[in-house]
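Tokens in:
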């Protein structure tokens, strides 16, 4: 993957500002209940590529949004993502002991604390997004809250996880697998980009439509690449248990399509995402570069 130094610098700056914003918004460990707040910070800070935050900022820049406003959308989505990982790793779900290269939250603390961490992170996300004067247009702010709520619930991420759990040991078609991942992984990736777009002061419905198409394609591509990496990469590289899906007999793009076809599909989704953006040239540069980063990571 040959991404420019300029993109790498941009991505690093967004990752750093996202980390700082999360650090500021998460309750300090000195505040009671101390253990819960410590575990919330443990599960959220110091790990991950912050892909959803990068998407929010790339889409926000495309729509002329203020970076400080985008920050709030970015960390709201990152908090929802962190909560989902904490719950996904628990024994009643995917039962994984490793996340981002360190013990999962329920292993570092305990299952009850991990459950509460997820609950609290989800609440904090909506606390941030509903803050007074977040956006000068209150209707846009309400739309943003609604988008995140739908993406997080039974018609989004939570619903996708339910389908995933029910699919263990089952044989799914590619269409059925896509339906599951549009909800489980794609919904939160899509909403990250949309929230970035809605953060813009000069609302442009045509640009939001472009972002929506882009994010849906990239959301699926992200999962295809995840499945490829799960089959090819080792635990140290992934920061989580490698080969977990195969060991649990879960359907993936690799098991359904094979490795070569799965890689071809990732490329096709990448091209579908960026093609409509070519007419916007440098205005959409970050979105295009980010699509490359997401679809070619680890290859």
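Residues out:
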């Amino acid at each position: 993957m040959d991404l420019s130094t300029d993109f790498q610098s941009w991505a690093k700056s967004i990752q750093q500002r996202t980390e700082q914003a999360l650090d500021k918004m998460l309750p300090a460990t000195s505040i009671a209940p101390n253990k819960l707040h410590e575990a919330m910070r443990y599960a959220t800070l110091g790990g991950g590529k912050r892909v959803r935050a990068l998407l929010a900022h790339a889409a926000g820049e495309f729509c002329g949004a203020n970076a400080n406003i985008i920050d709030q959308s970015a960390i709201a989505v990152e908090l929802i993502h962190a909560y989902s990982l904490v719950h996904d790793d628990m024994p009643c779900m995917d039962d994984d002991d490793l996340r981002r290269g360190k013990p999962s939250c329920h292993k570092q603390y305990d299952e009850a604390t991990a459950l509460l961490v997820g609950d609290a992170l989800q609440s904090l996300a909506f606390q941030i997004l509903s803050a007074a004067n977040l956006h000068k247009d209150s209707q846009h702010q309400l739309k943003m809250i609604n988008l995140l709520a739908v993406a997080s619930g039974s018609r989004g991420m939570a619903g996708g996880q339910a389908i995933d759990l029910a699919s263990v040991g089952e044989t799914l078609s590619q269409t059925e697998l896509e339906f599951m991942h549009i909800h489980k992984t794609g919904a939160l990736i899509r909403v990250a980009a949309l929230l970035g777009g809605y953060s813009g002061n000069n609302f442009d419905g045509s640009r939001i439509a472009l972002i929506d198409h882009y994010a849906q394609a990239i959301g699926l591509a992200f999962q295809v690449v995840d499945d490829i990496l799960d089959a090819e990469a080792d635990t140290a590289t992934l920061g989580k248990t490698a080969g977990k899906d195969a060991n649990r007999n879960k359907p993936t793009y690799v098991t359904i399509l094979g490795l070569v076809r799965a890689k071809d599909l990732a490329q096709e989704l990448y091209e579908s995402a960026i093609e409509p953006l070519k007419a916007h040239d440098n205005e959409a540069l970050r979105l295009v570069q980010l699509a490359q980063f997401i679809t070619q990571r680890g290859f």
